[in-house]
């Protein structure tokens, strides 16, 4: 039987995270997965998170180490919401999500020497009904800045949510359950 390698041990090859997202770094640290950050050299065009994840991972030379690219976005009725540019746009997005279910979709690309895994993970999130005052308070807190769908579920955005069906950490920005399984399959046994 092959020896299993503990991903948290220093002898495990460090994962290269092709992302500068503080949320993704925090999740990997929380999971005890060793990693180094390398900013991807990839321009996002289009709306497909899987394509973006692959582009990010492929833009970084792993030098024999596994490379992780992830892209997460929010879709309502099949329409990508993206990141709000202004407080008014954030308020509009939050208003459209109020009392409704939407999809948080992540593309994940994990690649190494001679292999590549591409996956799509969908988590359903339902917002509670929101008053204009709820939206105004959240927008004033500025937590929406730089966030897909104009909210951060790991912060005050949790007060907007009624229900989550699927991987919570996917909503934060990294489908952790899938990543842990892929790392165990690809790196864990050697």
Descriptors:
6 helices; disordered N terminus; Maf protein; elongated; alpha/beta; 7 strands; seven-stranded mixed sheet; 190 residues
Explain what you see:
The chain has 190 residues and is of the alpha/beta class. The chain has a single domain, classed as Maf protein, CATH 3.90.950.10. 29% of the residues lie in helices and 25% in strands. The chain contains 6 helices and 7 strands; from the N terminus they run E-H-E-H-E-E-H-E-E-H-E-H-H. Strands 1, 2, 3, 4, 5, 6 and 7 form a 7-stranded mixed β-sheet that branches. Helix 3 packs across helix 4. The longest helix is centred in the middle third of the chain and has 11 residues. It is elongated, with a radius of gyration of 17 Å. The N terminus is likely disordered.
Query: CATH class, anyone?
Result: Alpha Beta
Do you know the CATH topology? Maf protein
- Please, what is the average pLDDT? 91
Q: What gyration radius follows from the Cα positions, in whole Å?
A: 17 Å
> Per DSSP, what share of the residues sits in E-state strands of 2 or more residues?
25-35%
N-to-C SSE series?
A: EHEHEEHEEHEHH
Number of domains: 1
What level of helicity do the residues show? 25-40%
The CATH architecture assignment turns out to be Alpha-Beta Complex
Number of helices: 6
Q: Major sheet, described briefly? A: 7 strands, mixed
